[in-house]
Amino acid sequence: MIYWTITDVDSFWGFFEEVWFKSSDYALEMTGVALVFIAVCAATLLPPVLTKAPDQLT
Length: 58
What we know:
Blueprint: H1 2-12, H2 27-45
């Protein structure tokens, strides 16, 4: 919580821009974050692929 407050004060003073306020200016970064989010969601929601060793196939 304390770190988040420091980040907000630094952004308010103009030390850096917050990407989510000007998302159209950072299309590449926002696309990358969206792709990672979709990949993580897909990896957690899809069932795992069952693999068996060749000698255990019946």
